[in-house]
Amino acid sequence: MKRSHVGRLERERVALALAGVALLSVFPAVQRSAAQDSSAVDRGVRIGIIYRPGVRPGLVVLPGAAAPDSVRAIIARDLDLSDRFELITLPAGDSIRVSAAPLAGAGRPPAGGRGGAAAGLNYQLYQALGADFAVGLALVGDTTVLTVHDVAAGGVRREFRSRLPPLKDPEFRIAVHRLADHILEATLGVGGIAATRILFVMDGKVYAIDQDGADKRLVSSSDHQAMSPAWAPDGRRFSYMEFWSGHGQLFVQLVGPGKRQPVATTGQALDFTPAFSPDGKTLAFSRATEEGTDIYTVNIKDNCCLQRLTVGRFSDNLSPTYSPDGQRIAFVSTRPGLPQVYVMAADGTDQQLFAPFDYGVTGSSNAPDWSPDGQSVAFHRDVGGTLQVFVLDARTRAVRQLTSLGRNEDPTWAPDSRHVAFVSDRSGYRQLWIIDLETGRIRPLLQQSGARLPAWSPRIPETASSTP
Amino acid sequence: MKRLSLIVLSGIAAVALAACSHNPPPVTTPQQPNADSVAAAERARQDSIDRAAAEARAREETERQRQQRIADSLAALGHTTEAVRTMLATLIHFDYDKSNIRPEDASILDQKVAILQANPNLRIRVSGHCDERGSDEYNLALGNRRATATKQYLVSHGIEAARIETVSYGEERPLAQGHDEAAWAQNRRDEFEIVAGGDALRQP
Predict the structure, then answer these.
(1) Helix (H) or strand (E) holding A320
(2) In terms of CB atoms within 10 Å, which of A63, A178, A180, B159 comes out highest?
(3) Hey, is A156 helix, strand or coil?
């Protein structure tokens, strides 16, 4: 539906261009719409795109004979889901390119061995369509060649060669996603989120799913009920908790082979909500005993050195999340009565309120997650009996509400620090959704009830995914 | 057992014999103090046999009563254990996001105190549970507080702390599956299970 909508728009644009109307120039970027929460946001954003060109750079994924359709489709979708481009789809595929080529391509060199990059490309036409960048895909032997064109400059900006695993290979999609992230780096100089996965819990088991909603996999197959998955910063390991005869046992598991290790010193009490330090050497977690719940750290490199960070005889302290510099830990404390978001130095000193609240008015606040760029902490807060996702500015400590429709909880940041996955029942049942804080666009991650406690991975490194 | 019955039989025979031999004498003149030593010895022997028989009879009666008592109590114990277990398993409930024992639930806990006192070998596990409204992870801490609150109540009423374990399942194990206050109220609870010493429970 989206595509046809855009398609119609583009046909209009094509007509305009062919009629000889002046080329569309890139307007100075107008202010980005504030993130807003609305079920109709999908359509709304599209309307915004139509009437405010130039907000985001236009990008066209060129049709090509040689590359598999699935590769092109996955990449085009990744680029769309990055929310950083106006994706321009060419109507009627190759016909435009072929028919338009003679108009401007007369003086261009013929297709060469360099992936045919500049061959016969009608940069003027693509510019007229509003494209700043064009992406070409070709298959040379068993190598997929990705070419990123700078339309305004009229030339190739970057070329990537990649030997993709076969279509049936479990690592095929993540390898294609990685190509999409290359495009973001080559065009905008920013890291993408295409090659990322989201862990979540469903029916007491941990699953992983690609950020585009494909490739859902069971990753913890134990009979024990699991909770609270959390990624290591290297993207190769993750931790989670399982109930073992009333106790909470923490595990650290390798992504590829799925081998897991119980975390030393855990499992004798109710240990839960693990969180890796940015250097990956320390695991912070909550431990519930008869004294209450408090935050501890354990060295998972040497499996030693349990440390207690909070001491609250009459309050609970839980759900730690590290700042990306590893200096601070945000956490939840019930010391003001209801749970609220606090912060402390990573060694447990200097504990103080983080997200301000009105005593007796503001509801419980829980599940903080520190953004990878360090600037924000997302959490959820009880508003009138239901939960909503909020974002705290770590510097100014200003709090803003991100969602308002239905119950929304357990936010987790994407590595680009602008997308947040969370649990919402806005569609009638609880499932995972993703919001882009820049555009306000919201999309469901999967159409399945009961998914919760999401954890968004860092960019998955190649070695982690190439293991069998 | 066999020897016992032999003794009993010989005892009865001896008594019968004695009765026969003693029946006529009351009419006759009392025996002479200077009766011959044989008769005296015979009487002494007879007396000792009587005594032994009586003792055996008493022993047999005691034994029979004891057996009866054991049988009775075994039967009763089955009933009691079941009843006590049911009493012990009675849930207590909590208000939303609260972990204090409600006054109406205190009597249920008092009952458990009595059971624990009457059964010194009994050890139990208290598990705290929550409804689905709160935050998933926070509910583990809340459930922990609910279990601990119950333990503190029991301990403050004289039960050894070591006899009570506490665990929390947060909202992970709901009793009622609904999504309304009726279901939530049922799910905000403490459960009680026997860890050890629950084979033969005594009524308090």
Answers:
(1) strand A317-322
(2) A180
(3) strand
The C-alpha R_g of chain A, in whole angstroms, comes to 24
Question: Within chain B, what is the greatest distance between any pair of CA atoms?
Answer: 105
Q: Is residue B168 within 8 angstroms of chain A, CB to CB?
A: yes
The answer to whether B140 contacts A334, with C-beta atoms less than 8 Å apart, is no
CATH number of the domain encompassing residue A45: 3.40.50.800
The verdict on A90 and A228 lying in the same domain is no
Distance from C-alpha of A267 to C-alpha of A242, rounded to nearest angstrom? 9
Cβ contact B137–A227 (<8 Å): yes
- Both tokens of A109, joined, read 């060199």
Question: 């050497």: which residue's tokens?
Answer: A281
| Interface touch A288/B168, C-beta < 8 Å | yes
pLDDT digits (tens, 9 = 90+) for A53-82: 447 899 998 887 666 788 989 999 999 999
Nearest Cα residue to B85 out of B175, B197, B188, B162: B197
Q: Which residues of B touch A204 (CB under 8 A)?
A: 172
Weakest mean pLDDT among A182-186, A214-218, B10-14: B10-14
User: What is the residue range of A320's domain?
Assistant: 197-466
* Alpha carbon of A95: minimum distance to chain B alpha carbons (Å): 54
Q: Are residues A137 and A74 in the same domain?
A: yes
B172–A243 CB contact, under 8 Å: yes
Say which CATH number the domain at A438 has. Answer: 2.120.10.30
Q: Do A371 and A390 have their domain in common? A: yes
Q: Does B141 touch chain A (CB under 8 A)?
A: yes
Pair (A269, A396) in one structural domain: yes
Contacts of A339 in chain B (CB under 8 A): 135, 138
Mark which of A138, A170, A188 sits at the end of a domain. A188
Please determine, for residue A91, whether its predicted confidence score (pLDDT) is greater than 70. no
The pLDDT value given to residue A22: 38
A341 and A243 in a common domain: yes
Q: Is B146 on the interface with A (CB under 8 A)?
A: no
Q: A interface mutation test: which of B137, B142, B151 has the most A CBs within 10 A?
A: B137
Sorting pLDDT into bands at 50, 70 and 90, what band is B77?
Answer: low
Span B94-139, pLDDT tens digits? 999 999 999 999 999 999 999 999 999 999 999 999 999 999 999 9
DSSP A303: T
Q: Which residues in chain B are contacts of A319 at CB distance < 8 A?
A: 137-138
Chain A contacts of B167, Cβ < 8 Å? 246-247, 270
Q: In terms of pTM, does the model score above 0.90? A: no
Q: What is the pLDDT of residue A113?
A: 37
Q: What is the dihedral of CA B53, B56, B57, B60, to 10 degrees?
A: -160
- Which DSSP category does A281 fall into? S
